[in-house]
């Protein structure tokens, strides 16, 4: 596997990056507990102009990392329970981000089962962003960690995703964003059983 370089994240097309992340491998190695999985669902958030984005309300202590240089983790707590892992893209003061919504497990499945309290592997282990966060050991304390570190990175193992394999839909759970909720900024690998929510495109 080849770790993606910082330049992958330092681009201004968050939609393109979201699509290109499909098929790539998410790797975490917290305290020598290695887990990895193939990214099969993403959601793009286009900064201050996007009412579904946390950045739309401006710079706050929580969103500060979004306004920094891309290539870092943005981890936030949802409903006081779920640790949501996002990838910051673009350059300083252009707060784009991509939510990782679903991953197909590859390595460290026993570690993921222990973290989630599950007894056996099935599609619920890493389906949906809350489950991804739990299985991969994410915590808000990791917010701002570089995606080129040894603890956290995205890698390319040569897996090819064709245009025909990619489905799109409006994002999930952002009804508060008005007409921005209808943007087709959710991307997924068609037919993959780990994809969350509705999979029709």
UniProtKB/TrEMBL annotation:
Molecular function terms from GO: alkylbase DNA N-glycosylase activity; DNA binding
Keyword DNA damage assigned: yes
Pfam families: Pur_DNA_glyco
Keyword Signal: no
GO biological process, one term: base-excision repair
CDD domains on file: AAG
Keywords of this entry: DNA damage, DNA repair, Hydrolase
Top-level EC class as recorded in UniProt: hydrolase
EC number: 3.2.2.-
InterPro entries assigned to the protein according to its UniProt record, in alphabetical order: Formyl_transferase-like_C_sf, MPG, MPG_sf
Family of the protein in this entry: Belongs to the DNA glycosylase MPG family.
Official protein name in the record: Putative 3-methyladenine DNA glycosylase
Organism per entry: Flavisolibacter ginsengisoli DSM 18119
């Amino acid at each position: 596997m080849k770790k993606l370089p910082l330049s992958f994240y330092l681009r201004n097309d968050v939609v393109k990056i979201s699509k290109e992340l499909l098929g790539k491998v998410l790797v975490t190695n917290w305290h020598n507990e290695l887990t990895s999985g193939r990214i099969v669902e993403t959601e793009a958030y286009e900064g201050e102009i996007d009412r579904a984005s946390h950045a739309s309300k401006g710079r706050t202590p929580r969103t500060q990392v979004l306004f920094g240089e891309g290539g870092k983790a943005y981890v936030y707590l949802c409903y006081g329970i779920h640790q949501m892992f996002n990838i910051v893209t673009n350059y300083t003061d252009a707060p784009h981000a991509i939510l990782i919504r679903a991953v197909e497990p590859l390595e460290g499945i026993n570690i993921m089962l222990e973290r989630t309290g599950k007894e056996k592997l099935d599609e619920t282990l890493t389906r949906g962003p809350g489950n991804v966060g739990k299985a991969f050991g994410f915590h808000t304390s990791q917010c701002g960690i570089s995606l080129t570190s040894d603890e956290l990175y995205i890698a390319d193992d040569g897996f090819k995703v064709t245009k025909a394999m990619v489905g799109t839909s409006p994002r999930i759970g952002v009804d508060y964003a008005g007409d921005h909720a209808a943007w087709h900024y959710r991307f997924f690998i068609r037919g993959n059983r780990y994809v969350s929510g509705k999979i029709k495109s």
